[in-house]
Amino acid sequence: xxxxxxxxxxxxxxxxxxxxxxxxxxxxxxxxxxxxxxxxxxxxxxxxxxxxxxxxxxxxxxxxxxxxxxxxxxxxxxxxxxxxxxxxxxxxxxxxxxxxxxxxxxxxxxxxxxxxxxxxxxxxxxxxxxxxxxxxxxxxxxxxxxxxxxxxxxxxxxxxxx
Length: 162
Known about the structure:
By secondary structure, the protein is α+β, with helices and mostly antiparallel strands. The protein is 33% helix and 27% strand. The chain contains 4 helices and 7 strands. The two termini are 24 Å apart.
């Protein structure tokens, strides 16, 4: 069942971005913390391989799943990408696997463009998170407790169900 879901997601994402040149979807995972957080809405614009610059955040397929990682090296025929919290790069991204780049991040109604080079604090945070799954889980827990949605739920007296 999972393989069918992955194929459907891949086909739908590819169709939408090829037809319209744009795609919006909700991020999951922790490979791009703290720049991209689970729950962020990512706005991706279609780009050809030769249009992508080092430092941009590419949207591509790798190992039959969608990925959003930073371009750390570029050649005319491929991109080398790596999640900010990963120790090693991904397999090379070819023109066939590339769908576009993240141009905007919508986080709790605030929209911003990702910087081509993360700030010192973001790089330091990613370095800490890279070394410990425990640190990632603590960071995500603290972030979820401090997010505006959680604060609104707490202020209204409602209880959140996870």
